[in-house]
Amino acid sequence: MSLCASDKNIVLPAHNNRRFDSIMLFNQLQFYKLWNHFSRYFVGFFDTLPFIKILYPEFENYKQEYIAQKLLNEAYSAHNALDDCRMLMSLVKKTEKIDVLISDYFYSTHQVTFHDVQPNIESLEHLLRNKVLSRTIFKKPEDSSLTYNHLKISYHRDGFDGLFYLLSEKTGSGKARISNNRRVIQKIADFFLMKNDVITV
Predict the structure, then answer these.
(1) How far is the C-alpha of 29 from the C-alpha of 10, rounded, in Å?
(2) What residue spans define the domains of the chain?
(3) Does 2 score more than 90 pLDDT?
(4) 139-164: pLDDT as tens digits
(5) What is the pLDDT of residue 201?
(6) What domain of life is recorded for the organism (predicted)?
(7) 114 — phi, psi (to 5°)?
C-alpha cells in the first residue's frame, strides 16, 4: 500500500473487474482492515469486459487472450500478472475509445460489496432494478451503445418527445432502435420527471 501513498484518485482497470477482481480485492482488504485506507487513494475501477463486448459483438468469446489475438494478432502469458496488465493497456489503446471506457464503465469503490457491485444510480442497471426497464428492453440499449446519459439528455431536451425520437429511431433493417411503444417510453419519462434529474456534463 505504500506504493500508492504518493498519488491519489487512482482507477484500477481489469477484465471482468465488476464480477470478480474488485470483489476479491474488497474481501481481502476488508479482512485485513485495509479497505478504507485503500479507498483514500483509489477512487474506483473500470471493467473492460462489457466495454469490449459492446465494441466487438462479433467476437466468439471475450477472454483476454482471444481478444489480444483478434485485435493485435499477439499471444501472451495470461498467467503472468505484469504481461496481463500490459496487454490490457494495449487492447484499450487499440480500441481508440478510452473516453467511452471512462464515461460508461467506471464504478466507485463505494459501490463494491462482499458479494457484488451495487449499480450506479445513473445507470441502465439502476433502471432495470427499479423496474423502469424490462430485461428485454434493458439489453437493447447495451447492444446499441446507448447509455443512461443519452436517455437523460434526450428527456431534458424535449421530454417524452425527445425520448421517443431517440428510442424509436429506425435502424437499417427498418425496426425501432429500442422501442416505439409509447407506454414503455412514458415509463422512462415518468422516472426522470419523478427524479427531477439534472444533467451532468
Answers:
(1) 16
(2) 8-111, 124-195
(3) no
(4) 776 556 677 888 988 999 999 999 99
(5) 41
(6) Eukaryota
(7) -65, -30
